[in-house]
């Protein structure tokens, strides 16, 4: 008779099964699971840690335990889930090795009793060899980071393997992150990528003052902490926030701090006409209206998105900003021509004072929040020579967006990626193509309208080329990118 299987690990295995069967995202599966209701707070935290960790490192985990399986082995999906879970705990959590192995064996036994012996042999190897290899990689990278050579540009295969082991990323993605950010920033990102990201929240300024928002958060049992940003609070825990319904209703706005800084950089003037491309569920719309209101009054915003479901969600969340906000279903790449609900771009009323592009991207700056990205992303998706790649799509959207900017108006290009293929390279391609119509506005120049405290936060992320690029690190915001342009055509 084996050891008793802990309820948290049993629940985590069940949630992983839900993810596999329904092709769900980890956070969605956790939110919808009925298995967590009877668990203690500590057990729920362990379930979340295990599920999100496995989601973030799944491809690497398969390689780690797979090294000790026969090439002819064919694993039942539930056994694979159990081995992934146990391997993650052995290699990335501080659980004593004997406990992690024992619990891993019981996980496998719970779904395939005859495979318990195999699991015992494999997991002992993982614990003694692979976990030690990851610990050694972590120590060597720490030494390199502390040395004077930490940004030497050394990205040989051994270095990439070590960083991949520490972060749980594919080697190819690790290489691109280092090439885009440099070793120091990539190392900091790798060290925190399996941790929970900080959480910032604000109230819908059409409904609540800052004081009312603070009381609303406290009524949910949360502890809002003040930040340098007006009306924005940091939360140490999000427990109860999602279930409250206050985010989906539009009462509260959850958004990363760096995303908020980008909105402040682009904050529209009161009464100005704004086109928001990639409106999604309306989060940035709420932030843009809040930023405009802080300057004196609301802006008039037309938001477009290609996905009908998101348009309906945005309409519901933005009711409090009627009649200043309109939500349209439209293909961003088609905005250079006639679009239902919008005057043609060759008409004055078809152009805007500001066009804000929240571009579809890899999301590599948000791996802490969206752990599936690392192993679902492909190299082809980032290849600018691939006509179906993200950079090609981003350039197409930016090109179409430019046709909607009035002379003297502002164009904003933003992503939540840390990869230069989607950020600096897209900006450079656009400027090469449209240098007679648009110039880059340095982010530090755009920040001069903001408070000293906010300027200080923004300047930390300004690149030598004048763009905004935040980098994920422990207790720091996500990776977001922004470039601002001015239309220099004569009126």
TrEMBL record:
Belongs to the class I-like SAM-binding methyltransferase superfamily. RsmB/NOP family. The active site is at residue 416. CDD domains: AdoMet_MTases. It comes from Candidatus Coprovicinus avistercoris. S-adenosyl-L-methionine binds at residues 305, 331, 358. Transmembrane segments: none annotated. One of its GO terms (molecular function) is RNA methyltransferase activity. Keywords: Methyltransferase, RNA-binding, S-adenosyl-L-methionine, Transferase. This is SAM-dependent MTase RsmB/NOP-type domain-containing protein. It comes from the Bacteria. GO terms for biological process: regulation of DNA-templated transcription; RNA methylation. InterPro entries: MeTrfase_RsmB-F_NOP2_cat, MeTrfase_RsmB-F_NOP2_dom, NusB-like_sf, NusB_RsmB_TIM44, RCMT, SAM-dependent_MTases_sf. Pfam families: Methyltr_RsmB-F, NusB.
